[in-house]
Design brief:
alpha/beta; 304 residues; five-stranded parallel beta sheet; Rossmann fold; 54% helix
Length: 304
């Protein structure tokens, strides 16, 4: 049931409206009455009514002051203003505060009920929208891991995204930071589905133990790929050695690992190309090596 609070400094009006309306018939409950704004404010804080029917001119705290105060604290509260013919300026001010419903005194059941029905419809529509958004968010949370994986795969195969697309996905995935690195982990032999899944899972868990957030991860062409925030290579190598050791202990499979240079989020494809170039270099170092694009650049500079 939707809760209603009735506020007026004239007891005869409170008593009249209280008895005039069959509250239960409209799925409403009159949770209390007040004869001034201060008293009403206290009741609102205790009961959180859905609807407040209030006189506009009252001693102490006026209906207008009540609306203004409650709007800042309980913005979902719906107000119905009761005003006399000579109080239009007050009523128009209430409308500025977001009040959409007002009744001229004296008013009877035929005038009050349609307003209440309209408000109930508004509340139900809002509840349905909120439920829809909650369900949508819940469903999105369920599929988000698959969406993240697909997005990373799309990036590494060179699918074209514009800046707006990247910003959208970055916001959707709640990815923070400006610089990232892509890590590629290549098993020494072809792995079955369970081994591929385990490689990805072990990598994510080890990263997490070092407080490194894996923003995106997937398995592509037998390799696991991880997008992480940019860290210095000395720190990354220590973590990757732990991943290599853990995976070998479980499955007896050695890993060759490559690391891209630091780059921005929309340059994931470029980072992937760098990890592929590092793989070619790692071929000469042998299985189980860890090679970064930075290492290759330093080597090339030294040779030059």
């Amino acid at each position: 049931m939707y809760k209603v609070l009735l506020v007026d400094d004239e007891k005869i009006i409170i008593d009249s409206i209280s008895k005039l309306i069959d509250w239960e018939e409209y799925n409403l409950k009159l949770i209390g009455t007040a004869q001034n704004g201060l008293e009403a404010y206290e009741l609102i804080n205790v009961h959180h009514p859905h609807i407040v029917i209030t006189d506009i001119k009252m001693p102490g705290m006026s209906g207008l002051d009540l609306v203004k105060k409650v709007r800042g604290e309980l913005p979902d509260t719906i107000f119905v203003i009761l005003s006399g013919y000579d109080e239009f300026d007050f009523a128009s001010k209430a409308i500025e505060y977001g009040v959409k419903h007002y009744l001229l005194k004296p008013c009877d059941e035929d005038e009050i009920v349609p307003v209440l029905i309209k408000i109930i419809k508004e509340i139900k529509n809002k509840e349905e929208k909120e439920l829809f958004f909650i369900e949508t968010k819940r469903n999105l949370e369920k599929i988000l891991p698959q969406v993240k994986e697909q997005f990373l795969r799309d990036c590494i195969i060179g699918k074209t995204y514009n800046a707006k697309d990247f910003n959208f996905f970055r916001s959707l995935f709640r990815i923070q930071g400006n610089n990232f690195k892509l890590v590629l982990l290549k098993p020494e032999r072809e792995c079955d589905y369970i081994e591929k899944f385990a490689l990805k899972k072990i990598s994510e868990e080890v990263m997490l133990t070092y407080d490194v957030n894996v923003h995106l991860s997937t398995v592509f062409d037998e390799n696991a790929l991880l997008l992480i925030n940019s860290l210095d290579n000395i720190h990354i190598v220590d973590i990757l050695e732990r991943i290599k050791s853990s995976f070998y202990n479980y499955y007896g499979i050695k890993l060759t690992i490559t690391i891209s240079n630091s780059n921005s989020f929309h340059r994931i494809y470029h980072m992937y190309i760098e990890t592929q170039e590092c793989l070619q270099y790692a071929f000469y170092l042998g299985i189980g090596s860890i090679v970064s694009r930075e290492d290759i650049m330093l080597q090339e500079k030294g040779n030059y």
